[in-house]
Amino acid sequence: MMRIVVIGILLCLTALSTRAQESQEVYSFLRLPVSAHVAALGGDNITLTDDDPTLIFHNPALINGVSDKSINLNMMTYMEGAVTASASFVKAYKERATWGVSAQYMNYGNIKQTTVGNIETGTFSAKDIALAGTFAYMLSNDFSGGITARFISSSIGSYNSAAFAVDLGLSFVHEDTGWSLAATAKNLGGQVKAYDDEFERIPLDLQVGVSKRLIGSPLRFHATLARLNRWDEAFSKHLAVGVDLLLGETIYLAGGYNFRRNSEMKISDNDKESSHGAGLSIGGGLQLQRFKLQVAYAKYHVSASSLLINATYTL
Q1: What CATH number should be reported for the domain holding residue 114?
Q2: pTM of the model
């Protein structure tokens, strides 16, 4: 039955995707990390197996490892004038299943409105909203699968658009050896209402990843390949790597490097190119039994650095 449902969803999403034209992607806020732990590990990670409800935004299969009735609030500083926030709730269902709901919001603030002659005529605002439901199921003791269905809405001044998308995820975890493997297909779908007459692409992202905990060591290594649907780019632009230093069961420190971000943020200064630290990320977390606080620092735009904070409480 589950296989029939997934095939049906994919057929519907394929039909939606064919409506999209070869133009720039919309809803790019969906590419930003929501988990501070993921952000600290380079911004792309689908293999973390922590008790962390923010992983619902990165791989739906991972919520099977999240405590029952966990509620989570997140905030990230972005460009000047832009505010981004998100929230999630995860609930266990019977013995092998978990479901969750989540929301994302980004407000880009007030933007100057000008004529073609650069005469100011006022201001307008822009914002994005995404609402989602997730279901995950333990296929075996080591394998887990998950699906997220998401509604996306965006407005720019008097223009607005809407889209439907689905995330599919698989996760394999072998605790005895410390290996974790995963694959995801994110944002399968397309616009159902365009800003104007032209339908635009949403940020489809195929990812695979691996994590390895060194047995008897506090170190855990991660590598993720993202945007595998775009092989017209250099291999290095697909890679994000990270490492955890696990200080007992409650505290971790993490660092990562995103090769794509480093490349995209390079700017010329006196005939020299510099990314000004973009690509590097750091963070840490306190993970108690019922309360968790995680923080990450990274750079996602040339104009400013970003601080991402997660707060989680298990009811």
Answers
A1: 2.40.160.60
A2: 0.88
Say how many domains are in the chain: 1
pLDDT tens for each residue of the chain, 315 residues long: 344 334 344 444 444 443 433 346 899 999 999 999 999 999 999 999 999 999 999 999 999 999 999 999 999 988 777 889 999 999 999 999 999 999 999 998 777 777 777 777 777 788 999 999 999 999 999 999 999 999 999 998 888 999 999 999 999 999 899 999 999 999 999 999 999 888 999 999 999 999 999 999 999 999 999 999 988 888 889 999 999 999 988 999 999 999 999 888 877 666 677 677 788 999 999 999 899 999 999 988 777 789 999 999 999
- Name the token pair of 287: 């993970």
Please state the φ and ψ torsions of residue 67, each to the nearest 5 degrees: -60, 145
The boundaries of the domain holding residue 298 are 2-314
How far lies 296's CA from each of 74, 222, 259, 281, 285, in Å? 11, 16, 18, 7, 9
